[in-house]
Amino acid sequence: MGKSKRTANQRAFLIGLIGGFLMLIAGITGLSTWAAMGNAAITLTGIEALKYVFLILMILGSLGGLLVIFGSWLFVSKAKMKRKNKVSSGKTLISIGAGFGLIGLIILIVVGLLEDQLVQLMTGVNLGLIGLILSIIARKIARK
Q: Using one digit for the tens of pLDDT, what is the confidence trace for 49-64?
């Protein structure tokens, strides 16, 4: 049996793809929490324009796994960009997706602890954590 001849970017794509799907399956977006935080911020400050800031955060937060998948795809895409730019853009998207995924994971754990339902949420937490770790690995192994 021969050794696999995949490039670093092909491996990064596959790892990121799996990580992004696990993040989506785990549901570690914290979308409703971002909405609640936005409403609280507007109520406390009286600044209505904050709703647009939190709308962007809600959109990015809900798309964490998708951002990881799309960022990983850029590593191997045939898009008309310099490879260096594709990899840099992919890494940036993975960072944003993983960052929001991490926040969502923390929120999921805190809510589980507060509602004494952490045992029921452990599957989501485990899948989400594995997805986050894989997305970080994909980001690290991609080469410009």
A: 988 888 887 777 677 8
**84: which residues sit within 8 A by CB, 6+ positions away?**
144
Coil vs helix vs strand at 22: helix
Burial class from Cβ neighbours inside 10 Å (0-12, 13-18, 19+) for residue 84 reads exposed
119-136: per-residue pLDDT in tens? 767 766 788 889 999 999
CA distances from 8 to 36, 46, 100, 141 (A): 41, 49, 25, 6
CB atoms within 10 A of CB 65: 28
CA angle 51, 24, 84 (to 5 degrees): 85
Q: pTM (2 decimals)?
A: 0.76
Contact 87, 56 (CB under 8 A): no
- The amino acid at residue 114 is L
DSSP type of residue 27: T
Longest Cα separation, the chain: 66
The Cα angle at residue 116 between residues 111 and 117, in degrees rounded to 5? 75
Q: Show the DSSP H helices in 46-117 as ranges.
A: 50-62, 64-74, 83-114
